[in-house]
Prior knowledge:
Elements: H1 13-24, E1 27-32, H2 39-50, H3 54-67, E2 69-75, H4 77-89, E3 94-98
Antiparallel strand pairs: 1-2, 1-3
Helix pairs in contact: 2-3
Amino acid sequence: MPIQTSYQPKTDVATDALVMTELESTFSLLVWNDEVNTFEWVIETLMEICGHSEEQAEQCAMIIHNNGKYAVKNGSYELLKPQCDAITERNIGATIEVLV
Length: 100
């Protein structure tokens, strides 16, 4: 059996893509419940700013109402920051948190 004299690491494109995706998706955009904003306003906001369908936005609004908060979107900080700012400009509580 010949002895290998040089080491050539193998790269797995699928694994590299998975690692990149995991690193980029390490943040959540949380929307917080309050006693001020209506369901309609929150739903409209999620549709316009986050690109949710009406059904998805309605489901998120119900979860926010029942649980006090909900991660409406995951992604990179650079993607979520402008969306978080746009939501808070509409006087809806939103924060970005690191996924655990």
